[in-house]
Structure formats: structure tokens, C-alpha cells
Amino acid sequence: MRQAAAALELLPGQRESLEVIARSSTAKYREVQRAKALLMAADGVANTKIAAELSATPKTVRAWRERFTEDGLARLGQVRPGRGRKPSIPQVTIDEVVELTLHSKPAGETHWSCRTMAERVGISSSEVQRIWAARGLKPHLVDTFKLSNDPAFETKLTDVVGLYLNPPEQAIVLCIDEKSQIQALDRTQPSLPIKKGRAATMTHDSKRNGTTTLFAALEVATGQVIGECLPRHRASEFVKFLNTVEAAVPAGLDVHVILDNYATHKHATVTRWLAAHPRVHFHFTPTSSSWLNLVERWFRELTDKALRRGVFPSVPDLIAAIEDYLATHNDNPRPLIWTATVESILTKVARGRVTLKQEANSGTHH
Question: Of the candidates 86, 103, 102, which has an alpha carbon nearest to the alpha carbon of residue 136?
């Protein structure tokens, strides 16, 4: 039985260099893969596990280790003569693909596709795809974001995260929001069920049969959700829901509510209600920071699991489906655990602002 290899010994400078290669989006795929393997070997990971995670073979991993032990970093990026498949695409062409992908757009279009890039540089679309995949480039995808410009961002962030990580004693922490204008959508033709060899089907168009608004309060400690469907989402409906929540919380407990800056939440009617219920305390998230409110995650699960593919001939049918999901969830609730610290969030936000500023100054931000 083969004895497990000892952890690979790395000097501090070697580890730093390998980490740079492992994070690179422009280095050759094989170099990135080899650097990751060596770092894992230095952490004591077995060769077989390294091979499985990096889609290599244990023999290849052992060869990488042996060569690094012999040559160090000096010949890390070199392929020994006679070894490996000869490159079919010149390096200059690969560099051109990467440069065009990162710093340009095809005429009249918003992003490159495999076909447009292949036509531009004179290689096949499959070769373009391999170049992109090796460097983690995905021009067909775009992530959305928005950095908050709230002048009290740090203060509000600290307040909300503090409630998640260190909730007060003799109190309950609730995340409240409303999911408005939920549409009761019916399909224009009957759907077909799933069967062997065929996915379930439904028409691409739908009939709109009215809307409802779901008010929800997620208890952070348990994952339990208090929910109520109401026709609209004015201050009067919000106060009605607050009464429902207040009645559901045992006497003797303070109620700390995390919610966003929607105007209804700050209406004079709501302010008067708060004055009459001193055990309820509002904590507002920073503007453009709905991701801080954990009930938004529950809304996403509700949409994915009960609404997006649902068929609702009427608003009462829609409300019944929401209430069924709510009851099923509360039969076996699971708390959504918050782990990010204030410091880690502020670091990411600061990095985002620096990146935006750099992109704007370089003229590449669109």
C-alpha cells in the first residue's frame, strides 16, 4: 500500500509566487492548475485528492511535486522537451483573444460571443471557448451590483449586523419586508407533466388574474416566518401587519425590527403606532442594501419553489399557495445564519469603490 506523501515544503517567497499564479486569469491553464496542486500539496492534501479536485491524475500530481522539488520555481512554466501535446494556437493569438475580451467590444454589440471572436482572430469558436474557459472569462454573463451612497452607511451597517451576530437578551429580532404586486398568473393553455425523456412544459405567455402583497416577518433566531397577504402595501396595511406581529410575540420581549427605507415604513401613521408600542424598535438598513435583510432570501426561496412555475386562476388561489408554502416552511424552519462581520463588509465595499474609480479613470467603465 502506497504511503501518503509528506507535505511539500515551500519557502515564503515560493508560496507567494504560487498563489499569484493560482489566482491569475491570464496565465496558461496548465500553469494555474499546477500552482494550485503545489499549494494543496504544501497544505498536506493527499495526491489522490488533489488529482480529483483538479481533474488530473495522481501520477501527474506526483510528477509536478517531483519536478518542483528538483527545479523549484525556475522552470515551473516550462514543459520538458517531448512532453505534452504541442500547442495548436500561437501564444500571440491567445493574447489577442484575452486583450480583445477584456478591453473591447464587437462593432454594434454589447459583448463578444465565441463566434464573433473566432471571426475576428481567425480561429474556431471551440478554440475561443477553450481560451475563455482556461482563464475564467465569461463575456456572456454580467453580475448586477449597486454600492450604497448612504452617508450613514457604516452606522446602519454596524447596527444591523450587530443584531445578527450579537442579538440582545430578552428580545426577538425580526426581518420585515413586503413582496408587492405578486401576480396570479394562469397559463393560456394546459401544461404537460414531466415524463421520461421530456421535461414538464408550460406556455411562455400567461393570463394576469390580479395581484396580492405579502407582508413577512422572519425571526432570525429560529427561521419562523409570520406572513399575511393584503390587497395593497400602504401605511395602513403595514400597520395592520405590525399589529399581527406584535400580537404574535410573547409579552415581556422587546421586538427589534430590521427593515428597509421604503417610505411606507416611515409614514406618520407608522410613527404614531411606534410611539404607542414602545417595546418595538426599528433598525433601518442603508439605502440600496436590501441584501442586508435576511427576509429577502426567504422571498427568493418562495419565488423559486412556489411561485415561478405556479398556475393561479385567481388571487385566492395565489394566496392559498403562499399560505401553504408558509405553513410547510414553519413546520420545519431553519435559521438563516449571518456570518459576515462589519469589517469584512466594509473592506469589500471599499475595494468596490476603488475598482469603480479606477475603471472610470481608465475609461473602461460603461
Answer: 102
- Which residue in this structure is represented by grid cell 493560482? 22
SS3 of 30, please?
helix
Element housing 206 (H / E): strand 206-219
| C-alpha cell belonging to residue 345 | 463588509
Please state the pTM of the whole predicted model. 0.62
**If you average pLDDT over residues 163-192, what whole number do you get?**
88
SS (H, E, C) 59-124: HHHHHHHHHHHHHCCCCCCCCCCCCCCCCCCCHHHHHHHHHHHHHCCCCCCCCCCHHHHHHHHCCC
What 264-270 contacts at long range (C-beta under 8 Å, 24+ apart), as own/partner pairs, is 264/233, 264/234, 264/235, 264/238, 265/238, 267/235, 267/238, 268/235, 269/235, 269/236, 269/239, 270/235, 270/238, 270/239, 270/242
**How do residues 189-232 score in pLDDT, each as one tens digit?**
777 677 777 777 666 766 888 999 999 999 999 999 999 999 99
Question: 173 Cβ partners below 8 Å, 6+ apart?
Answer: 163, 164, 167, 219, 220, 221, 256, 258
pLDDT digits over 60-101, tens only? 999 888 888 887 776 565 545 555 555 568 888 998 999 999
Helices (H) and strands (E) in the chain, counts: 13, 5
Whole-number Cα distances in Å, 333 to 26, 209, 225, 330, 339: 45, 31, 8, 5, 19
Triad 51, 89, 76: Cα angle to 5°? 45
**Cell digits of residue 320:** 392559498
Return the closest-CA partner of residue 358 out of 142, 350, 169, 131.
350
Residue with the three cell numbers 401605511: 235
Alpha-carbon distances of 235 from 124, 162, 181, 212, rounded to whole Å: 59, 28, 16, 15
Residue 353, Cβ density class (10 Å: 0-12 exposed, 13-18 middle, ≥19 buried)? exposed
Q: What are 85's three cell numbers?
A: 501535446
Answer whether residue 281 shows pLDDT above 50: yes
